[in-house]
TrEMBL record, chain A:
The keyword Transmembrane helix does not apply. GO terms for molecular function: Atg8-family ligase activity. Belongs to the ATG12 family. Pfam families: APG12. Ubiquitin-like protein involved in cytoplasm to vacuole transport (Cvt) and autophagic vesicle formation. This is Ubiquitin-like protein ATG12. Forms a conjugate with ATG5.
UniProtKB/TrEMBL annotation, chain B:
This is Autophagy protein 5. It comes from Rosa chinensis. Residues 203-271 form the Autophagy protein ATG5 UblB domain. Residues 116-172 form the Autophagy protein ATG5 alpha-helical bundle region domain. GO terms for biological process: autophagy of mitochondrion; cellular response to nitrogen starvation; piecemeal microautophagy of the nucleus.
Amino acid sequence: MSTTKSLTATKKVVIHLRATGDAPMLKQAKFKIPVMDKFAKVIDFLRRQLHRDTLFVYVNSAFSPNPDELVMDLYNNFGFDGKLVVNYACSMAWG
Amino acid sequence: MDMEAQRFLWEGAIPLQIHLHESEVTTLPSPPPALILAPRLGCLPLLASHLKPYFSSALPPGVDTIWFEYRGMPLKWYIPTGVLFDLLCAEPERPWNLTVHFRGYPGNILIPYEGEDSIKWSFINSFKEAAYIINGNCKNVMNMCQPDQVELWRSVLNGNLEAYLRVSSKLKLGAFGEMNSSSPRSRSSMGEIDVSGQVKQGRVPVRLYVWYVIEDFDDLEDAPPIDSWDKVFYINQPVEIQGEGRCFTLHDAVKSLLPDYFVEKSLGTAESLTVGGDDKQRVSSEDASDDKKAEEEVETSCDDCVNCKG
């Protein structure tokens, strides 16, 4: 699979944001994000939308990805049914 | 043989010369730089236990949050020291000169650092991610009992390979299954197969750090310094090892991760490639010994990968 910027610049990944515990739900939970964006963008987006600095963000309710990780790699490694499931919580959910 | 390679990795260290940033020096004369040997597998803020006492008398009043900088660029605290060094110092500098700050944390560039727990969090999650890649889930890590979790983290914190192996062996993180080959292969110059003639196959979680360069240059010494994290990416793709008797090398792994940037060339030369309509150039270089990695650095998420011979 090619990872060159020129080939993948316009491709997007579907992210499904799911609230966990007492975290507020978002009006719109599904988004498309460019493949070459780093996971930090998802974290920042959630922080802004929820007006919270402290957020715990996970993939597949399993682990918290490094903010530098490309959403493309996260989708390829951990996505299913055409999307990447991202869970968010206000307190640590899966220690 | 496996243990030797693993021990070599765990014991690697970078000599550092750490200078307190001049804006934070309140004494005359200013304190001499600290000389410290930093484990390659560790993270820079873990050196705080040595550096804070060393520089504390020179610091202005206030609350400390340690952060490091190389040539004006704040260093990401969750990238292991060895990876930072290999990535940012194309021509290795020994000792590596870094600047330490205890004030003015650059929150616009670095994600928050809240002490050793931040690094532990980063490590445990990377570890879970690696387990997920190997096994399709990370239940083995999530189901660890508390004492084992503590032992795991402490073993990494202290660079204690024996303790790490004791705990990690319970986790069944073997990335490799074994398959019998039908006939023994001869030794290749790249490595060796194990005596029983078995070949190994499996998925190895890999983080390959790549530095994208626009300018042209001939020697690594002339390489422009990395002045922004926007020029650095890492690729997180597992490497599939299909054992066919020959040894699967680091070169094979990097080639599978960046297929567009490898062309046949003589060993020991660097080469620039132009991609598409852009004038951007990606530089990929390697030398025969595979000891030096220029602007590409491999961070292996799972220590089991060093079981691969070669």
